[in-house]
Specification:
By secondary structure, the protein is mainly alpha-helical. The protein has 8 helices and no strands.
C-alpha cells in the first residue's frame, strides 16, 4: 500500500513538473534544490559506504548538508538552481548509461554520475539560454519521476531497488521504461516551449529570488 501511495504521488508530481516546469520553477526552486542535493548526496555516498551503521549515517549527514547548501545557493543565486537541475539531469543520464553498459562497480558509477553532473551544469552555463535550460531540465526530471511512479504503482520496482537512482532502476527493469521516459520528456519540452512566450525570467542570472520574480511568471510580456 505504501508503494502504491508513493507511486501515485510520483505520477502526479512528475506530470506537474514535466508540463508546468517553467511556470512553477521559481516557486519550487529552493525546494527542488534541497531534494536533489539530499538525494544525490545520499545515493553517491551510499555507493561508497555500504556496510553497517556508517553505511547509513554518513550518507544521511552528507545528503542533509548538501541539501541545505544547494537550497541556500539556489535562493541567493537563482540561476544556480538551473545549473543544479542541469547537473541532476547529467547525473541521471550518466548513471543510466552505466546501467545500460551493465557496469555495477560502485565507484565507477559514482564517478561517471559526477562527471555527467559537471558536464550538464557546464552546458547549461555556457548555453546561456535560461528559459530553454529550465524547460528541458524540468521536462526530463519530471518524466523521470513519472516513470518511477508508474513502476511503483505497477509493482515493477521496490523502494530498495532505487538506492542507485531512478535511471538505473528503469534501465535494469526494461528499456520500455526508457522509451516512455523519452517520449514523455519530448512531449513536455514541446508543450512547455509553446507556452513559454508569456513567461519571463528575472534579469541577471546571478541575482537573488525576489517577490517580483514570482509575479512575472505567467504574465504576458
Amino acid at each position: 500500500m505504501d508503494d502504491l501511495v508513493l507511486g501515485i504521488f510520483d505520477l502526479l508530481l512528475g506530470l506537474w513538473l514535466a508540463f508546468a516546469g517553467l511556470r512553477v520553477f521559481f516557486a519550487i526552486l529552493p525546494i527542488a534544490a534541497f531534494f536533489i542535493g539530499g538525494y544525490g548526496g545520499f545515493v553517491a555516498t551510499r555507493q561508497v559506504f555500504d556496510d553497517g551503521v556508517v553505511g547509513w549515517l554518513v550518507p544521511l549527514v552528507v545528503g542533509l548538508g548538501l541539501a541545505i547548501g544547494l537550497a541556500l545557493v539556489s535562493y541567493f543565486l537563482w540561476y544556480a538552481g538551473a545549473l543544479i537541475l542541469s547537473g541532476a539531469v547529467g547525473a541521471l543520464l550518466g548513471s543510466g548509461l552505466m546501467a545500460a553498459l551493465d557496469i555495477e562497480t560502485n565507484w565507477v558509477v559514482v564517478l561517471v554520475s559526477l562527471a555527467g553532473a559537471a558536464l550538464g551544469a557546464l552546458i547549461a552555463y555556457f548555453f546561456n539560454l535560461p528559459t530553454l535550460v529550465v524547460i528541458v531540465t524540468t521536462s526530463l526530471i519530471g518524466a523521470s519521476v513519472f516513470v518511477l511512479g508508474a513502476m511503483l504503482v505497477l509493482n515493477r520496482v521496490d523502494p530498495e531497488d532505487l538506492e542507485g537512482g531512478p535511471a538505473i532502476a528503469a534501465v535494469n527493469e526494461s528499456w520500455f521504461w526508457v522509451l516512455i521516459w523519452a517520449v514523455l520528456a519530448g512531449g513536455a519540452v514541446w508543450v512547455q516551449y509553446q507556452s513559454s512566450k508569456d513567461v519571463e525570467v528575472p534579469e541577471g542570472r546571478w541575482s537573488r529570488l525576489q517577490p517580483e520574480a514570482y509575479a512575472r511568471v505567467g504574465r504576458a510580456s
